[in-house]
Every structure is written in structure tokens, then in C-alpha cells.
Design brief:
This protein has 312 residues and is an alpha+beta fold. The protein contains 8 helices and 19 strands. The N and C termini lie far apart (38 Å).
């Protein structure tokens, strides 16, 4: 319990730098109420204008929250969202940021992240590592990812803007996923080709293999019934390769939880579904990530990560 409180304090003070005069909103659901309560208690130590709002789980990562929640987010100075399903890639989150709100989301966060994992990190170090990687790849054009697990995929990032998720959210309109620690981009929509083999993917049991052509999944190999159901419900747009990211958090560990797994230093991840938060046009209520733990990454013919080790 002591470490849970300590990490909640890190979110409120180091990550968000909450001030006494701000309007702070904590959005949660009944599945993550214990964690939300810990964050609420720490925010209340600094800020008496902290509100805890509990809603029903939205049912899917990227699905929109109720309109009353969206309006409350937009009317706040800072939003902290430990929810079972992700609000990161929703219009509600983007509209709140446009209104000047700074936001951290914690979709599906576990107590492990608070007590032993990514939220025990020093976020000044996470920021340093994220910015170091960003400085190397920010103007890149082509990316190639391989791994001993069978991954062999190429894609274009021509004209796309890389983003850093450092966990330091002190400026209006800033957004971070906590635990934080990644550098990410939206691949050009029709450019991704090859094979992806995920060591961790929440919508499958065991490893998942995807055959990708012209930016979309063409074949699924593995026990991934929940993913196939989403494809059936939402159609081809759910099959788009929407994001590529590089983990930069030295405290994160692969535990089978996407929020924690995708931040592991030296790992990479790809996401399917919505890419509108990366400047794309695939507006769909679904966004889900898969992790490759020990990749080799080549950017514009230069290897920057070899079997999970940074070479920069």
C-alpha cells in the first residue's frame, strides 16, 4: 500500500505538477476504483478542487466515454484517467487537449505498475531517454523491424511526425500514457508490409502472428478470437497498422499488460485500429497494441536497436 501511495504521488507531483488552484478530474470505472482512490487521495493533499468521476467501462479500447464525461474532461485543467479501457485515442481526449487540458491516461493499469513496474521510474530519466531516441529518428523516412521470433516488416514514416511520451505533463494540451516511456509514430497508411510476431498481445492467447500487406492485416495466425470478433464487428478499418512505438522506460517489465509492456526499454510495439491521434484519418473506436520484446530496428539504413539493445 505504501508503494501504491508513493507512485500515486509521483503522478500528481512529478508527472502532472498539480497546483492548489486547478480543477482536477479523475475519471475511472468500477474495475480500477482502488487505484483511482489512491490517486484521488494524493491529489486532495494538494488540491481541494479534485473530483472523482466513476463511469461504466466503455467496452473497448478507443471507444468514446459518455458525453457528460467528455464535457467534464473538457472543463478541467488536468485529467487523470485510470480506466479499464483506453481513453487515449478518443475524440473526448483530443477535444479536451484542444481546450487546453493536460491529461494522463492509465488504461488497464495494474498494481504491479505502481509497486514494481513503470510507475516506480524516475521520470526525469524516462524523459531523457525518450528525447535521446526522438533526436535520432525525428526526421526519418523508412523503418524496418526484425526479430528472432519471426518478425520481418517494413514501412514508411515519410512526412509523419514522431511523438514522445515522457510522463512529464506540465504544459496545457500535453498528453501522456502512464506508465510512460515511448517514442511513437503513425506509419503511412498503405506502406506496411511483412510479418509481425507479437510476444504479448492482450486480444490473443500466446504469441500472435500477423501477415500484413499494404498497411492492413491480411491473415491472423494464433489463438486470437477476441481480435477476430473485433475485425468482424468493425471491418477492414480495424485491420490498419496504426502505430509504431519504441519503449523507453527502464523500470517497465513485460507482464502481459499492454500499458506496462509497451514501455519496456528496448522493446517495440505496433497498434491496430485508430490512427487519428497520429494525424491519420482512420477514425474507428478501436486501438490495440502488440509488443515485440527483442527487436532489431533499422531506420533509414542505420541500425538503432539490435536484439533489444540500443545502439544510439
Amino acid at each position: 500500500m505504501e508503494q501504491l501511495t508513493k507512485s500515486a504521488r509521483t503522478i500528481v507531483t512529478q508527472c502532472l505538477n498539480i497546483k492548489p488552484y486547478e480543477k482536477v478530474l479523475i475519471v475511472t470505472d468500477n474495475k480500477l476504483l482502488k487505484i483511482a482512490q489512491a490517486i484521488y487521495n494524493e491529489s486532495r493533499r494538494i488540491n481541494f478542487d479534485t473530483v472523482l468521476l466513476v463511469m461504466e467501462p466503455t467496452g473497448r479500447d478507443g471507444a468514446e466515454p459518455p458525453e457528460i464525461v467528455a464535457q467534464a474532461m473538457k472543463s478541467s485543467d488536468a485529467v487523470i484517467a485510470p480506466t479499464f479501457y483506453s481513453l487515449t485515442h478518443t475524440k473526448a481526449r483530443m477535444e479536451a487537449c484542444k481546450a487546453g487540458v493536460r491529461i494522463v491516461t492509465l488504461p488497464g493499469v495494474t498494481e504491479f505498475s505502481f509497486t514494481k513496474g513503470g510507475l516506480t521510474a524516475d521520470y526525469t530519466e524516462v524523459k531523457r531517454l525518450s528525447e535521446k531516441m526522438f533526436s535520432v529518428i525525428k526526421n526519418s523516412h523508412r523503418v524496418e523491424v526484425k526479430s528472432e521470433n519471426g518478425t520481418d516488416v517494413k514501412f514508411s514514416v515519410e512526412g509523419r511526425k514522431w511523438k514522445t511520451d515522457t510522463g512529464i505533463i506540465h504544459t496545457p494540451r500535453d498528453i501522456s500514457n502512464l506508465p510512460a516511456g515511448e517514442v511513437c509514430v503513425g506509419p503511412v497508411e498503405n506502406s506496411t508490409n511483412g510479418i509481425m510476431v507479437f510476444d504479448s498481445f492482450e486480444l490473443s492467447e500466446g504469441k500472435l502472428k500477423l501477415i500484413v500487406k499494404y498497411g492492413k492485416v491480411k491473415k491472423v495466425i494464433g489463438n486470437a478470437k477476441p481480435l477476430l470478433e473485433i475485425f468482424e464487428q468493425l471491418g477492414d478499418r480495424a485491420k490498419l497498422i496504426a502505430e509504431f512505438g519504441i519503449g523507453t522506460n527502464p523500470k517497465s517489465r513485460i507482464i502481459g499488460n499492454t500499458l506496462e509492456d509497451e514501455k519496456v526499454l528496448g522493446s517495440v510495439h505496433f497498434a491496430l485500429g485508430s490512427n487519428i491521434s497520429f494525424g491519420g484519418k482512420n477514425d474507428i473506436p478501436f486501438h490495440n497494441d502488440g509488443i515485440i520484446s527483442k527487436p532489431t530496428v533499422k531506420v533509414d539504413e542505420k541500425i538503432i536497436i539490435k536484439e533489444g539493445k540500443w545502439l544510439i
